[in-house]
Amino acid sequence: MGGLISIAVTGINAAQAGLLTTGNNISNLGTAGYSRQRVVQASNPTIMTGAGGIGQGTHVVTVERMYSEALTKQVLNAQTNVSSLDTYNAQISQIDNMLADKTSGLTPVVQEFFDAIQSVATNPSSASSRQSMLSAADTMVTSFQSMYSRLDELKNGVNSQISSLVTSINTYTQEIGDINQRIISASSLNGQAPNDLLDKRDQLVSKLNELVKVNVTTDTDGSYNVFVGSGQQLVVGSRVTQMAAVASSADPSRIVVGLVGAAGNVQELPESLITGGELGGFLSFRSQALDASFNQLGLMASSMALTFNSQNALGQDMLGNIAGDTGFIADFFKISQPTVTSRSSNAVGSPTVSASFDAASYNGTNFYTNLTSSDYQLSYDGSNFSLKRLSDNTAWSGASIADINTALAADPQGFSLSSTAGAFAAGDSYLIQPTRYGARQFSVDSSVAADPRLVAAAAPARASAALTNTGSTTVGSVSVGPNYSTNGLPLAISYDGTGLTGFPVGSVTVSVGGNPPVTYPITATTDTVTFTSGATYTINAANTAASPAGVSLVFSGVPATGDTFTVAANTSGVEDASNMVRLGNLQTQNTMLGGSATYQDNYAAFVNDIGNKTSASEISSSAQTTLLSQATAARESVSGVNRDEEAAKLIEYQQAYQASAKILEIASNIFDTLISLG
Fold this sequence. Notes:
Layout: H1 2-27, E1 37-43, E2 47-49, E3 52-54, E4 58-65, H2 69-100, H3 106-122, H4 127-190, H5 195-211, E5 214-218, E6 224-228, E7 232-236, E8 239-240, E9 243-247, E10 255-260, E11 266-268, H6 277-312, E12 333-334, E13 339-342, E14 353-357, E15 361-362, E16 367-368, E17 376-380, E18 385-389, E19 394-398, H7 401-410, E20 415-419, E21 429-433, E22 443-444, H8 446-450, E23 461-465, E24 474-485, E25 491-495, E26 500-501, E27 506-511, E28 518-522, E29 536-541, E30 549-556, E31 564-569, H9 578-585, H10 599-639, H11 643-677
Antiparallel strand pairs: 1-4, 2-3, 5-6, 6-7, 7-8, 9-10, 10-11, 12-22, 13-21, 14-20, 15-16, 17-18, 17-21, 18-19, 23-31, 24-30, 25-26, 25-31, 27-28, 27-29, 29-30
Helix pairs in contact: 1-11, 2-5, 2-6, 2-10, 3-4, 3-9, 4-5, 4-6, 5-6, 6-10
């Protein structure tokens, strides 16, 4: 009887374990991270008899956690990508919306500014037109400043989020390390897996993975090793390495992520190593969109200021002042110079490096800048300097700062460098940001803003044909170029039947349409320059202290022998708008990127780039969300609790329990019968 009773008891115990496990599954139906469990049974050793083997019932081997490492990794990969893309998209959408807004974007205010310029060009003596131009200019620079402020808010928000996320990451890694130790201890007691602790640890890894992409390996003792980036340790067994959010050594305004060493020192991690999760999304947004937005906005502000100021400097204000005169304001706009930041690890006493904008280049028609939207890094290895453009790693090298400037003269980037006295040390590094803060301090000169008469609408010189001329030639379209001189005016030019004479010693350059210009050397005022109707004649005197230089004028018509023309200072030129017309022409001329793009071209490309990145992130996020749903469904098919399946198992284990109890009842009845026979 003992064998039969023993078998019945093992069946009851096994059924009871099944009921307990199934009940636990049902009660945790809504528990996040819970993995379905099942009872694993095995038969007890058989007793061999002369009639063969007699079974001895069953026993519970273990309560198994239904878990697939492969499916879990698929979920983790999809989840970290979704978190990263959603974060990236939420941030870049704010820039996209700002740029696309027809009321707050730059396109309307820039257009209004140039419309106001055209009004002054139409009526240069009108005080109201000049004031309207200044008001439009102020509205435009305010829009630049407001857009910069909005970007700055996003930057501060990213810095704050990085610090917050690092704190959360450290909390999760510490908990994972603690649970690792508990799992090791629990597993060593009886060799059985602590399922609930394993579920909790996986849930923590899942939460951590939503914040930053991690790689997980399992040690032989069952503990997890958690790595970030290219293998940087966060958790190894129960040992945890803390992350830290610190100011960048290259740019203190930028919060970066580092790992805290045993001695408490922080080793900065390259941003390229931190991918996935919310943290990766914020870092990607900052490096791919926010930094570019700051630089592009500053590029447009800086280029507009430099080119507009250069053309403005070639004009004459309403008071008759020109370049060099007291009271003349050459720079209509004010901007800040490029920013240079020394790396915090530079040697003590290393020189200070500074950068300044190059003067806008001039192609004979308009001014343009060679600035780009990239940041640069200047480094010194102990013998040579290297300047690297960070957008594409293009580099220039030289043994000194002067050599770097020489290299930049051959391949201009729109700025040049200088340094204070002192010796550089190997390893010194400087971050150069030519346009990063260009929009922040973009403003109209306060003197011009207070007095519309200081707007340089007129040209410094004018030309006229003598009333006694018998030919049909007219002269006009007077303009001046960089470093012009009006000394020696008035200047009389005559047509002697073969060409024009009277030019000062030096040279005259004649340009016709798109043909290559022809330069005529002038060794005496009697030297002849061929007459071509419609051509532009540029006077380049050798002695600018006594003669005009950089002055251009256009002759049109048919001259007669003895016709004379006079080039004179533009005294009382309040009705002249020659320079204002040229200022207005800057809107449609190639003034940026080495003379290859207009203001609008560059801004449109910037807006399109942000729009494309926003659209791409939305599409990628949608695709990754679908993958996450599919991966989660696949994992749940293995690990998830199915209510119907568990209900069926309850009935199965109930019936098994009842059957085992029936065996026990029968054994008891047989025993009672045997007793009664005795």
